[in-house]
Sequence to fold (207 residues):
Amino acid sequence: MGVAIRRAGAADREDVIRLLDAALVHDPVSSWVFPEEEHRLRTHRALMGAFLDIALDEGYVDITEDGAAVALWWSVPAGPHGDDGGAIEAEAEREDGPALLRRAVDPGNERVEVIGRLTEAIHPTDRPHEYLHLIAVHPGRQGEGLGTALVTSVLDRCDRDGLHAYLEASNARSRDLYARLGFTFMGTTLDLPDGPPMWPMWREPRA
Fold:
């Protein structure tokens, strides 16, 4: 039996933020952005809320019908203004997106801004693509294939429409999972300063 997936909306906001927070608060990248655990437990939710609001306004959010897994996506056009998910709505074209995000979430934390700048710098701009910004599965439901179902539902559309896909894997386990789904490591890791690596991965559409 397949996994039922629907498009999330504003009514799902609080539930999705709780899920993102619970699933990703101990992720290596989140732990780097907020190295002090007590501060992370207080502030990580605000960053997840900011990312979700951007996705609801500028991208799209897929969620399993039971609310156990969610994925935040953007359709990125070719050209120098492709959005890396660190910008806040259309203001990114007029102001500094990573700085805006830092100001909105955690003004005293330079790393909120740094990670936006670093991911923006490596984001491919030569071809339109679907960008998987975040994916989260409830800690008690991991290993059931829910994340794979969310990703493959979009990749099936990419294959039908001839679209590329891109993401940055935040740990070796997810990197290996994405490789099985057809993503290829782009050759150079994004090494966060004094922190963990991220793996930029690209997927060509399958015939």
Notes: Residues 37-58 form the longest helix (22 residues).
